[in-house]
Amino acid sequence: MDIASTIARFANSFDEKDWAAMASTLADRITVDYSDFRGTKGVIARDEYVSQRETALSGLKTHHLLTNLEISEIDGAARCRASGLIYRTRADKFFHSHVIYEFELAFRGGRWEITGIKQAVLWHEGDPSIHAGAKNPGGNPERWALTSVGRRTIMTIREAVDADFAGILGLYAQLHPDDPTLNDARDVEVFQTIQASPWLAIFVLERDGRICSTCYLNVIPNITRAARPYAIIENVVTDQAYRGRGFGRALIQKVLAIAWERGCYKAMLQTGSKQASTHAFYRACGFSADDKVGYVARPG
């Protein structure tokens, strides 16, 4: 079994509750670091690791999605870094985690086995009380968010309010630096129109009181597709100082979830960027460039 297959089997074993399969991917003893999530760190025996997962996930429906694998291998040892999205539900409650995994592996007895696991939390969403292994940080569980540089900070995704207007304009200036500055309050009027519409919403990601990311969700009423609406997402931007931390992806995934909750049968966006990293970002968020071709017309 190759490295990617070993990691995939490890992830799938959680969701299938196949504890024997999980054990088959692990070394006799594993170095673990779940300090971001449950405060545990150290060396643990394989059987104890599996037993803890079986207990913590009892009664939960889960789906572990690991993507963007970065694998390096040398002399029978390997490292694998992966982006993870963990869905958990129990009855009508949910608790989801956006994480980065770092695995260490060794090639022994003709197979790869996991010798180390580190989980860094980017963002949680939902009610941690449904997960027996979660460390509840207190406060409103809907706002439990990311860990950064060893300290817990609050990251909130929400619809924009009046006080966010200046911060949103600052982000738009990074997105479209050649846009003119309006002095007649037309932009304020449009902002208020968007706020008043049941079909339109500007969302922001706020970290420690600062607006770090924003995007604009348009839900379009529609007669076809069983009269289901569709969504268009525009003006996606993260502050240059906060890029590369998963903020943009967290925001897009939350906004997509809201679009699905509102009954949209699809969501679309366009980008004029030619940068491969931009296209990779949107693919990682779940968008495909293969379904349709976009055309743009402009006046004049």
Q: What report would you give on this structure?
A:
The chain is of the alpha+beta class. The protein has 8 helices and 13 strands. The protein has helices at residues 3-16, 19-24, 46-56, 165-175, 186-196, 224-227, 247-261, 276-284; strands at residues 26-34, 40-45, 61-74, 77-90, 93-108, 111-126, 147-148, 151-152, 155-159, 200-207, 210-220, 230-238, 267-268. The strands form 3 sheets. It has a 6-stranded mixed beta sheet. Strands 9-10-11-12-13 form a 5-stranded mixed beta sheet, sandwiched between helices. Strands 7-8 form a two-stranded antiparallel ribbon.
Which terms summarize this structure?
alpha+beta; five-stranded mixed sheet; elongated; 300 residues; six-stranded mixed sheet; single chain
Secondary structure elements and pairings:
Elements lengths: L2 H14 L2 H6 L1 E9 L5 E6 H11 L4 E14 L2 E14 L2 E16 L2 E16 L20 E2 L2 E2 L2 E5 L5 H11 L10 H11 L3 E8 L2 E11 L3 H4 L2 E9 L8 H15 L5 E2 L7 H9 L16
Parallel strand pairs: 1-6, 12-13
Antiparallel strand pairs: 1-2, 3-4, 4-5, 5-6, 7-8, 9-10, 10-11, 11-12
Q: Concise description?
A:
Helices cover 27% and strands 38% of the residues. It is built from eight helices and 13 strands.
| Strand-residue proportion | 35-45%
Class computed from helices, strands and strand pairing: alpha+beta
Q: How are the strands of the largest sheet arranged? A: 2-1-6-5-4-3
Largest sheet, if any? 6 strands, mixed
Q: What string gives the helices and strands in order? A: HHEEHEEEEEEEHHEEHEHEH
